[in-house]
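Async update (no meeting this week)

Hi team, since we skipped the sync, here's where things stand on the single-chain job. The sequence we agreed to prioritize is pasted below, unchanged from the tracker. I ran it this morning and attached the output directly underneath so nobody has to dig for it. Comments welcome in thread, and please keep replies under the output.
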Amino acid sequence: MRIQLLLLALLAGLPAAQAADIEAGKARASTVCAACHGGNGVSVAAGIPNLAGQKVGYLTGQLQAFRAGERKSDLMNAIASQLEDQDMENVATFFASLPGAADSAAKSELLPNIAKSRISFPADYKTRFTRYLTMNFPDDKQVRFFYASPVAIKAAAAGVPLPDGSMIIVEVFNAKLDEKENPVKGGDGFFAPDEIVGYATMEKEAGWGAEIPGMLRNADWNYAPFTADKVQRSGFNQAVCLACHKPLPKDNHLFTMSQLRASTHAN
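Output:
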């Protein structure tokens, strides 16, 4: 009896774990998670898992694994790194409280503020922009050419943050292949380009990030892919790009910032 009383006294002195807050979880999910997993836990695309009705422990464990880097996903690693334990518990409890998806084929609509990109394709980029980088992508058998707008080049040369009006355009080409289906390399070591398959763009203008949730916001950058005919691809989810570029504020959210700076010193 004395031992039981002692244990009860010790337990009474321990701080109680904070109960999960479903409303806080719902608020977080509606602004960030909903971009891919849907506000009701039913995802926006077939390749993204539904979260509605999943167990709290499972969801919390996956978020912790993403935060620790034990599970690899550029998008989820960036999101989870911004979540505290209580945030994870709240979000997991919210999704667990929802009924499971009745129809596995059902999907949520993209969040309007994430699906909408304000970027327009500049038809004259070839004459105004500076090509600063070429990269091979062996896994995709592609070669890509990177261009920067005049204000971005000027800022990179001066070593100052990229200002409004900065734009990056990436031309994506399939590489020419030899008889063994291997990319053909030119004398410079880069794959020889064949047909262009599309463009990737990012642009920064004042206020463009205002409607994007803070956990995804990249200052005022927007992102958009374009077809080979320079038409913005429909159904694009900016959350994928926003989350991947989110951890790069010191590099203006640009993966190739060091190459952009180096190119201005070389010229």
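Quick observations from my side:
The beta strands are 130-137, 142-148, 167-175, 193-204, 221-226.
The first helix runs from residue 2 to 13.
Reply here if anything looks off.
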